[in-house]
Amino acid sequence: MRELRQDLPLLTSRVESGIEQPHRLNSAGQRGVARDRRIALSIMDEAERLSTSTREHLRDMCDRTPISLLCIGMPGIEKRLARYPQLYSCVGCAHHYRPRQDDELTFGLTRHWRQLGLSLDSADFTDTQARAASSRLTRGNFRLLHRLFVQIERRWRINELHVIPEDVVEAARSTLVIGATER
User: Fold this and answer.
1) Residue 123, in any domain of the structure
2) In the chain, which ranges are continuous DSSP H helix?
3) Is residue 94 part of a domain?
């Protein structure tokens, strides 16, 4: 809570400063001072982990400033927020992300492969196996897919591979803690 109270205004100020940089020249080409706030949204990931006092602080921030709050969390976060009526009244909607389907999953995997300098080839048996293993292990959960690929890339680089075999995907999965809500 102490860190949030100290860091959030500092981070907001830094971001606003970066946004205002090109806007500081007035019409005569002289430096001026920006008067309006440019940040409209603050994003909190893993919001279900916030303490009650932190939630209250964020609600107070939303009440006192024009900054909106976007809370991202695991399924069921809206039920947790509903326990705090003053904060919950600030919630405009709750959106449940469905798991990625085949085309979306292929698109995401293609991007991960490309970041490694590889191309995902559906005609290549090794790529097809790795794709199937990634799909099976993550069940289309894009956050879990990202976490899995961090570990895949680590193992891929350590072993100086030129492809991503299924056993690397399985080994990467073994390093992750996957809870029931993520699968």
Assistant:
1) yes
2) 2-20, 52-64, 77-82, 85-88, 102-115, 125-138, 142-158, 166-174
3) no
